[in-house]
Amino acid sequence: MNRLLDSKTERIVRDRAIDEVARSRANRDRSGIGELILDYLDRDSGLLRPWLVIAAAHAYGIAPRAPDNRALVGVAAATELLHVFALLHDDHIDREDRTARHAPGSMNDGLRVLAGDFVHELAWDLLDRSIESGGFPRAIAHLVRRVSLETIVGQQMDVAYLAQPEPPSIERLLELYDAKTARYSFVAPLCVGALAASPQCSDIELLDRVGILLGRAYQLVDDAIDSTSAGNSPPWERNLVATLLGDSGRTVAESSLPREILCGVEPILGGLIDAAHDQAERASVDGVREIVGTVALRLRGRLDDHAANRLP
Question: Which CATH number fits domain 137-312: 3.40.1000.70, 2.40.128.630, 3.40.50.720, 1.10.600.10?
Fold first, then answer.
């Protein structure tokens, strides 16, 4: 999902997040924590969560618009720092290294946990200051705090699935998708942006439903691609896709066939996207429909590009 923001706004948001880390004690102390966080921020990402915050705020009429609204940029940058917190802990759990330069300590478990904890606090400090300077409602902080806790619960579920190679039930799978991805990656940014623009926004429950549907679609595509990529993906990841396809009784090897998984995922993805479009049609502003359309287009493009490379 690259290049969602225009180049100027993307640069300003990224620089704001980097500046918070660069000025922190962890970076000055040369402990390796600051360098590791900066390396995560330097990776080639599309700044999905900051884009959702800004797009929702623009949709509901915030003035001035980003990048000229410094408080809004601060809130958006805080969501990217919170994303880095989740990535650091996820990579520790999954034994992955997705840093830009493979910084020293990127595979040091203790350092990754400490870096995740530290950037979580940096994010909260930036969020709190930005809410105050922008005169935004404190409901934003309450929402993000609740979602942060749910993300940690989702990570704990992730750990549990690593120890249980058999597929989870469809209900447990969706619970994982919602906690691990949907709420912090979609629900919170959409609602935060709307509340920043309109503290009395009447669409918050609708945005919650839209965010859940988009988050499930996003994680479905992510798991489908991971489980059909070259190399060894974890058995639990392949079994998650098997559960969604309704084949939870099959073996991991059988359920990992690329054609079967990718073809089977398409109608499920289509159903989630259609449901998100249906919800967006009920929104009080057109911008929500535009957001759903952009996310849907990019998810389908990502899956199609992967299928073109993997299927004969």
Answer: 1.10.600.10
Q: Are 40 and 99 spatial neighbours (Cβ–Cβ below 8 Å)?
A: yes
- The Cα 142–Cα 21 span in angstroms is 23
Same fold, 1-135 and 137-312: yes
Say what the pTM is.
0.90
Residue ranges per structural domain of the chain:
1-135, 137-312
CATH of domain 1-135: 1.10.600.10
Given the structure tokens 């639990």, which residue do they identify? 236
pLDDT 10s per residue in the chain (312 long)?
A: 457 999 999 999 999 999 999 888 777 766 788 888 988 898 877 899 999 999 999 999 999 999 999 999 999 999 999 999 998 888 777 666 666 555 555 556 778 888 999 999 999 999 999 999 999 999 999 999 999 999 999 888 878 877 776 667 778 888 989 998 999 999 999 999 999 999 999 999 999 999 999 999 999 898 888 777 766 555 556 556 667 666 544 544 444 567 777 887 888 899 999 999 999 999 999 999 999 999 999 999 999 998 888 776
Taking the C-alpha atoms of residue 68 and residue 127, their distance in angstroms, rounded to an integer, is 17
Q: Could you tell me if 80 and 17 are in contact, meaning their C-beta atoms sit under 8 angstroms apart?
A: yes
